[in-house]
Amino acid sequence: xxxxxxxxxxxxxxxxxxxxxxxxxxxxxxxxxxxxxxxxxxxxxxxxxxxxxxxxxxxxxxxxxxxxxxxxxxxxxxxxxxxxxxxxxxxxxxxxxxxxxxxxxxxxxxxxxxxxxxxxxxxxxxxxxxxxxxxxxxxxxxxxxxxxxxxxxxxxxxxxxxxxxxxxxxxxxxxxxxxxxxxxxxxxxxxxxxxxxxxxxxxxxxxxxxxxxxxxxxxxxxxxxxxxxxxxxxxxxxxxxxxxxxxxxxxxxxxxxxxx
Length: 260
Ligand code: NAD
What we know:
Layout: E1 6-9, H1 15-26, E2 30-34, H2 39-53, E3 57-60, H3 67-81, E4 86-89, H4 104-132, E5 135-140, H5 153-173, E6 178-185, H6 191-194, H7 196-204, H8 208-216, H9 228-238, E7 250-253
Parallel strand pairs: 1-2, 1-4, 2-3, 4-5, 5-6, 6-7
Helix pairs in contact: 1-9, 3-4, 4-5, 7-8
Nicotinamide-adenine-dinucleotide binds near residues 91, 92 and 113.
């Protein structure tokens, strides 16, 4: 049997990251999961995915707030599978506040997780990818990597920065078989977003449908969520041969948000 490709997906215990990990495993890649959460629930996800797909699925719970832990995660994935072919920097958090009140620790946390962790992961993965003349790096940015919304200064700044990191890495890896691209999703109905709906319904006296269309999807012309599985399919495409010449791109999947 041909050697399986191997992938590390950060923040893959939930939402978009889990959908990406599942798509990769279903496509026959060995996958290293990462993220926070209940150990029993994570082990259930890991073992079910391994049983369902027949690939090697492992978990490393490194907390990516610490640069050394990010490096250790990449090294662990390489050691576990013998090499690392695909790196998806997906873990991220959000915090919303007027800038004059923005807590310093929230700014620092968002810069570290949403921008610092991709930098340290790529830094650790790049040497091996270049040496093997193959690597696919995908950074999960956001529509907020391309446009702003008020009160999201730290997130918008980090996601714009992530696009700059993507372009730089794309140039550095271009002749060494490494590709680096960013995906910029609009609103995706992950558990995190789903959990905001009942509170917003209560706070504003709106129906679920009104909250979705008029609040959450106000900027998204299709008035439909992006599905996590669609982002996962996009990632899978970026690891395919058809995408070999896509490099340094910021690729929107946002229902037309950034066309406006
Ligand atoms: P989510 O909260 O469902 O998942 C986030 C993942 O990151 C989880 O697995 C969590 O355990 C992990 N994580 C959080 N802190 C961590 C830490 N310190 N160390 C390691 N892992 C950590 O979020 P999501 O909605 O799936 O978002 C995933 C990515 O997609 C993020 O980068 C987010 O900015 C981006 N994004 C989301 C949306 C959306 O609407 N949901 C839109 C655009 C971009």
